[in-house]
Amino acid sequence: MEEILRQAITILRATWKHRHLGMVVAWIVGAIAAGVILRIPNQFEASARIYVDTQSILRPLMSGLAVQPNIEQQIMMLSRTLISRPNIEKLIRMADLDLNIKDKAQQENLIDSLTSDLKIQGVGRDNLYTISYRNPDPAKAQRVVQALVSIFVESSLGDKRQDTDSARKFLEEQIRNYEKKLEDAENRLKEFKIRNIELSSSEGKSGIDRLSELSNQLSIARLQLREAEQSRDALRRQIVGEEPVLLPDANSGGDSSISLPEIDGRIDVQKRNLDTLLQRYTEQHPDIIGTRRLIKDLEEQKRQELLARKKFAAANPGTSVSNNPVYQQLKVSLAEAEANTASLRARVSEYEERYKRTTSVMKNQPQLEAEYAQLNRDYELDKRNYEQLVSRRDSAEMSGNLDTAGSMADFRLIDPPRSSSKPVAPNRLLLFPLGLVFAIAGGLFAAFAASQIRPVFFDSKSLREATDLPILGIVSLVPNEARRLKERASLRRFSIATGGLVLAYAFGLGLLTFLSQRTIGG
């Protein structure tokens, strides 16, 4: 600690030795600083305040119908990006700042200067913005602020219209794309349904149900075909003589052995049906009762037919078989039976073909159903996206109409652009004390530098440490009266110079204060 204190004292003594040089440098630096401060041009500030009212009555009324962007966030972003190069170039033209520009370099310097000097500040959360600019010419500063206010308002309106148009164009393009996708999906579905018509005509039935239904229909058709073939064969046997008795003998007493193919075939079918029903139901079942009644009616019909034939045979004993109306009736019945058999055979063939085709379809049905589900899923997705895009396009159009009918943000000029009557910069009342401090610091630095350039030893210890030689002795200076007077005079001159420097700055500061007060009073 003592060593540090000794070194500090040595430095101060060395600096004090060159105090006169330091004082001269302080005066020179102070004079230069005062001149620079006085020559700094005055800066006049022009400012304007704008209030952005975003509380429109249309916003709650159109909630859910039109797209309502965050107006506060848009205005805040606009205020931060307003000072851009395109806007600065536009501002230069509007404020006539390009009249004295002669080359590209001057234009670039002007753009850089405006970019750094223009200020846009938001005041809290009240959507209140202050635009300010400083310039030596108050009129020019006011023109610049006025132009920037105009650009601020126009940019907000223009950006909203541009955003709406861009959104509408984008939605229209996407809608056209999805229309094309929907058409392609619909065509794929149509082609798939045409290729697999069985799936589209199933009426909600599964493949097993359709196959079971076709199997039942095929069985019924085959049974009807066998019945028709048996009836036809019976008619053929009667006509060709396998059963020669066409009419009952008038003297015969019974008719149970006489055959009528049509009625007998129907009776046989009903009897077989009755046997089948008896295996499943009891005698009291409605189907069994109805079948027995039908068999009884057919037997009564046969009895009536045989009675009619007996009467005809008794009335016409000599009639030949070929001319017999019963024979003619058998021929007609055979033709009808042949036609019915052919029709039933075609029906059986068709049902067999359907059964085969359905069986083949059922083998590929899982793959077809998966393909149909995929096609339908893609179509539904594209359709849902298309409907959403159409809805949003309508919302965008409504939003554009809403902007046209009434702006969602109202710009109000609270304080019009105006320049200050007195300079706002530089603050010479603050710069003058700083100039004095800078002058004193310059003097101290000059004295310290001189002491380092021409060092002096003030004690034997420093000399011994520097030379590493033994000290034989110390010769002390015994000051006389003349030297004391000389030191006092030197100290007096230094004090006067120091006080003069401080008083000069104090006088200058007082004069500036007086002039500024006078300017305010005027």
Instruction: Outline the low-pLDDT stretches.
Output: 242-255, 318-322
The fraction of residues in strands falls at 5-15%
State mean pLDDT (0 to 100 scale).
76
Shape: rod-shaped
SSE order, as H and E?
HHEHHHHEEHHHHHHEHHH
Structural class: alpha+beta
Q: Return Rg in Å.
A: 61 Å
Distance between the termini: 61 Å
Q: Total helix count?
A: 15
List keywords for this structure.
522 residues; 6% strand; 15 helices; 4 strands; 72% helix; alpha+beta; four-stranded antiparallel sheet
Describe this structure in words.
The chain has 522 residues and is α+β, with helices and mostly antiparallel strands. It has 15 helices and four strands. Helix 2 runs parallel beside helix 15 (481-521) and helix 9 runs antiparallel to helix 12. It is rod-shaped. Residues 242-255 and 318-322 have low confidence and may be disordered.
In short:
The chain is built from 15 helices and four strands.
Please render the helix and strand layout as text.
Layout: H1 2-17, H2 19-39, E1 44-53, H3 58-61, H4 71-81, H5 85-94, H6 104-117, E2 119-123, E3 128-135, H7 138-195, H8 197-200, H9 207-240, H10 261-280, H11 286-315, H12 325-405, E4 410-419, H13 428-453, H14 460-467, H15 481-521
Antiparallel strand pairs: 1-3, 1-4, 2-3
Helix pairs in contact: 1-13, 2-13, 2-15, 5-7, 7-12, 9-10, 9-12, 10-11, 13-15
